[in-house]
Task: inverse folding
């Protein structure tokens, strides 16, 4: 679950809060081409990058439209088992009734590697593999991302002071992140229906307190010893290299700075990828700094004109959907995908939650996304794409 991001204008006030404790939180554009409609009778398509689009093996444009399914990042370290709620055929059928064609699955680094208690190691890995296989068999593309990771971080906007993977950290660690992605990429290479989102929400700029953006972008790409972060960082060039060293050609997504909300220098600092299968990701909530059409035009549109862009988390924290309606309209016009946070039965007044039960009954917030996904599916049918 994403942490609430404080706006930049509140920096001074929030720095004062840091003294007494942790900040509160919870965890030239092209017209949109129609994507292939989800079909549970046909497995999810293998995807690759072609210019600024994701495409299937037949060359059809494929936008990632769907939801996040939270649970795998926290349940295993909180004594709650493996997931938060059912991950069975019935629950996936409910997703299909929403016309979901992509599901982002947050993971826990230490549970996958077996360095945590609870469900971890082989048992955790097998549960993830089983869910990935279920999604693919139902025509839904899984996006695997590491959400909670190892590393002690106690400064600005810290989610916890724990070294273990019990909350979000500002950047992946050199200690565990390469091992995690070597293992995950090895497990799913050869199945290009699966995508890799290498880290949930980088925020090395907030960690530095100085908001030195060039230094933060260098940390993002190159890693090393980054100001304010109390552990050696694995930069995203290292992690892209790590994935490709396994032979995996799966599409990789990378979010930018400020909890993946800032893509202002993404193109300048993007890692090199020998396969060309690198795409951009962004998170956009109503409480983010970049939360207006003018900002989307300024920061997101230039990236979407060059590489595929997916808004891998979208949401608002007031149980409504007016904000995401505007955002999705912008995304549709720019060929950008989007995934709602989150397909969990939480109280939408305490954080973005799409459903009230796992049969897929929408919250007032979720109704906005469900309606938009239905519209996209209808557009695909009228365009003669796979039904």
Result:
């Amino acid at each position: 679950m994403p942490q609430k991001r404080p706006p930049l204008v509140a920096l001074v006030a929030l720095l004062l809060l840091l003294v007494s404790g942790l900040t509160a939180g919870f965890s030239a554009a092209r017209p949109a081409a129609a994507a292939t409609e989800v079909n549970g009778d046909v497995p999810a398509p293998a995807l690759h990058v072609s210019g600024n689009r994701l495409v299937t093996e037949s060359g059809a444009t494929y936008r990632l439209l769907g939801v996040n399914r939270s649970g795998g990042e926290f349940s295993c370290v909180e004594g709650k088992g493996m997931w938060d709620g059912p991950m069975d055929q019935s629950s996936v059928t409910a997703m299909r009734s929403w016309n979901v064609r992509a599901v982002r699955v947050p993971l826990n680094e230490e549970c996958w590697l077996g360095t945590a208690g609870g469900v971890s190691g082989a048992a955790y890995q097998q549960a993830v593999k089983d869910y990935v296989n279920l999604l693919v068999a139902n025509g839904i593309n899984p996006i695997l991302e590491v959400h909670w990771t190892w590393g002690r971080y106690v400064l600005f906007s810290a989610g916890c002071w724990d070294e273990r993977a019990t909350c979000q950290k500002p950047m992946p660690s050199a200690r565990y992140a390469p091992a995690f992605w070597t293992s995950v990429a090895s497990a799913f290479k050869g199945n290009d229906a699966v995508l890799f989102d290498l880290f949930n929400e980088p925020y090395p700029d907030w960690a530095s307190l100085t908001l030195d953006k060039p230094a933060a972008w260098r940390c993002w790409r190159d890693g090393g010893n980054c100001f304010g972060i109390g552990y050696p960082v694995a930069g995203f060039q290292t992690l892209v290299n790590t994935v490709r060293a396994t032979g995996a050609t799966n599409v990789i997504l990378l979010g930018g700075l400020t909890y993946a909300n800032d893509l202002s220098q993404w193109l300048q600092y993007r890692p090199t990828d020998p396969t060309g299968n690198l795409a951009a990701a962004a998170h956009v909530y109503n409480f983010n700094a970049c939360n207006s059409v003018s900002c989307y035009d300024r920061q997101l549109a230039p990236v979407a004109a060059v590489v595929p862009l997916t808004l891998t988390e979208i949401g608002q924290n007031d149980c409504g959907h007016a904000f995401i309606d505007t955002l999705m309209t912008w995304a549709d016009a720019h060929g950008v995908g989007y995934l709602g946070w989150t397909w969990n039965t939480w109280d939408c007044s305490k954080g973005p939650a799409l459903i009230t039960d796992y049969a897929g009954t929408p919250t007032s917030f979720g109704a906005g996304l469900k309606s938009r996904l239905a519209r996209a599916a209808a557009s695909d049918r009228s365009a003669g794409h796979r039904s």
